[in-house]
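hey can u run this one w/ heme C bound, need the structure tokens asap thx
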Amino acid sequence: MTDWYRTATERVLALVLLALLPACTAPATPTTDRPQLGVAADPDLLGRQLLNVFPDGRGLPPGRGTVADGARLFAQHCAGCHGRDGRGGSADELTGATRPLTSVDADKTIGSYWPYATTLFDFIRRTKPMNAPGTLEADEVYALCAWLLHANGIVQADAVIDAHTLPAIRMPNRDGFIRIE
Ligand code: HEC
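ok here u go:
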């Protein structure tokens, strides 16, 4: 077998290649001290992701909804999974708890379990309907809160739910949780 580096030219070439090898394997000099990944966050998109609603009402948008409008919207968007009256469907029961929280098989519904009414707005706006989240207007979400609260016996049939009335509602299980500061 002939050695490929026999001639002087080949030997020089081999040496140059060997000298270049470390430069090829060394990591590229970073231009900043951060990884160069992703794109700058779009403030508009970020704004639309900030959907948190707090128990004191912070984060609630303008708008309002009635129990009657909520009943219509619930039948249209929610009853298919949750049942016509918010129970008896394939998805979680939203109304009609019968077994107390102290029982082994407790019914944990909005009325029996949830400590804050504002969670309803947050949860429905960001996740519902399950097959088309983010499609409901603020007025529609307020109306669905109104109907669900009424169906749980928490507000009257003529209630109007908005950014002021929703945080003011005292839920039956308001004191059922231990708050750790
Ligand atoms: C495609 C089926 C489907 C549709 C449509 C749907 N949901 Fe749900 N929903 C579920 C399922 C499954 C759960 C339980 C899992 C979860 O919490 O996401 C649930 C959970 C919930 C909960 C939380 C229950 C709890 O106590 O934890 C609420 C509130 C709720 N849905 C409201 C609604 C409202 C209001 C609508 C209509 C705007 C709606 N859902 C439409 C399937 C659905």
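The radius of gyration is 30 Å. anyway lmk if its weird
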